Amino acid sequence: MRIRSTVAWVVAAGLLLTGCTASTAESGLDKGTTLTVAVDEAFDSSNPATTYGNSTANLGVGSLTNDWFFSVDDTPAVVRDESFGHYERVSTDPLTVKYTVNSGVKWSDGTAVDAADLLLNWVANSRARDTPGYVPGALADAQTHEIKGDLPADTVYFDSGAQPDSGLGLVHDLPTVSDDNRSITMVYSAPYADWELVFPAALPAHVVGQKALGLTDSAESKKAVSSAITSGDTGPLSRVASVWNSGFNFTEMPADTELMLSTGPYTISGIEAGESVTLTANPEYTGARKPSIETVVLRRIGDPLAAVQALGTGEVDVLSTPATAAVADSLEALENVTSLSGSGGTYEHIDVQAAQSKSGVFDDLRVRQAFLRVVPRQQMVDELVTPVAGDPAVPRDSQVLVPGTPGYAESVKQNGSRAYADVDVPGARALLAAAGVSAPEVCVLYESSNPRRVQEFTLIAASAAQAGFVVTDCGDPDWRELLGAANHYDAALFGWSTPSLAVSATSDTFRTGGSNNFSYFSNPEVDAVTAALGVELDPATQIDLQQRLDTLLWDNAYGLPLFDLPIVTAHSDRVTGVAPSILAPQLLWNLPDWTVDDSR
Description:
Layout: E1 2-3, E2 30-39, H1 56-65, E3 70-72, E4 78-80, E5 85-92, E6 95-101, H2 115-126, E7 176-177, E8 183-187, H3 205-213, H4 218-231, H5 234-246, E9 266-272, E10 276-281, E11 293-300, H6 304-313, E12 318-322, H7 325-332, E13 337-352, H8 365-373, H9 377-389, H10 408-414, H11 425-435, E14 441-445, H12 451-465, E15 470-473, E16 491-497, H13 507-510, H14 524-535, H15 539-555, E17 559-572, E18 575-576, E19 595-596
Parallel strand pairs: 1-13, 2-11, 14-15, 14-16
Antiparallel strand pairs: 3-4, 5-6, 6-8, 7-8, 9-10, 10-11, 12-17, 13-16, 13-17, 18-19
Protein name: Peptide/nickel transport system substrate-binding protein
Domain Solute-binding protein family: 89-516
GO biological process, one term: peptide transport
């Protein structure tokens, strides 16, 4: 195996947003070429904007099947796609943004992308037309949070997780549609720091309308969807929301192929439930990201060593996985394979359920603090990270800021993380005694098929036992489906990926009711700080707020960051162009630029 120069995939806060055109593979489509990429999650939705569909796997497929106004490269920085359309901030007071789709941009069925698609995107991701106070209740699966079934008549609820005080939630008023029906202009009710990053790729409004309203003609369907949004008519809009929420969720090839329409370089051509997704170059594609490889198979392999073995046998061509000693040794034995190693954008952490836990013990702050005092972070780093990183590694000491970015070092000095630097068994016992608790049971959810997570769980269980905790096993291969399930577990051990360049990106994780707040954590001060981050435009003040948020999370024993996950990306020498990014869709962000050469 050849090892290329090590790269550090570290996000830098305050990066300038660029305005260049998306990169394009110079070569044309190479007919008959096929590539297989190992991924660790299964695809289950072509709408990653829902709380259920928001996964790296779905975002990866979406990035290849949909073009949009912008994407994020491996710098990481925003890259505008001028071949799709353009957007501009036309005013700062009030904040006003205009999006325009280029003439000739079409869905893969030939239907034009236009203002109807943009309006649907606004109403779903702002929730401006949602029925006040409505929660899906029994419609939402208790474990996966997937909304199943139709909403009650005249009830509108878009499952995007949007809040009225941040992001598109600040666009309360109906956007203005241009006369040529290719632009919408949105006016924010307050300043918003991350305005450039909040408008995700859209679903086809004509398909949503056909499914929701029983129409067959694309033009009529678009008009009906736009009319429902414009008028706020809750009858049809309720049905539109139901389709948007769950109509694009599927784990095998749907009978209705319109659910898989594309504006991007690839279309979905095959799905094996839980196993793989096959993508084929879109023959109707006219955008800038013209692909070279005709067929791409995204094959789910959850076990990193199994993925390496598949690379060695030629069953897969590219993989990206957390680095372990076993993975490094296995890759070293392979021939005709090139590897890149570095620190990825994912960090391991353990969160405790502040409410609705299996045992209820963590409702008490002192019990949360006691448990976190006996999590052996340094031992984990010494045994799981340093052997594969090469240099001595240290735990991550911030829930909010990334090591090496402005504000991180200062935050660590004052955020309270020092209290958790070493295992403190006497301190944990004293906290349990003060809480009047003995032998508290803690069931930990983790990915039981992942060897590293098994090691982490084992180390935690042994250490916590010294303070009197009874740590039990809630591990599951399908752990992701159980995140947030009420009364199912007490603590969760998993990885967070750096979600975006947005300074407000952590809001959905830490604020009350946030779409990524799986631990039922709720704190008024945290809510106030996350709200302030969303509207603060001054970089220095943004860092101050992030540091304040960091301290609040440590003070309230939200959980523990453990360590940044070392990542290795490896590919067959027949593949060129692989350049992983720390941000979703990570490895797949520039796949259209990859090429294969079977003569190598």
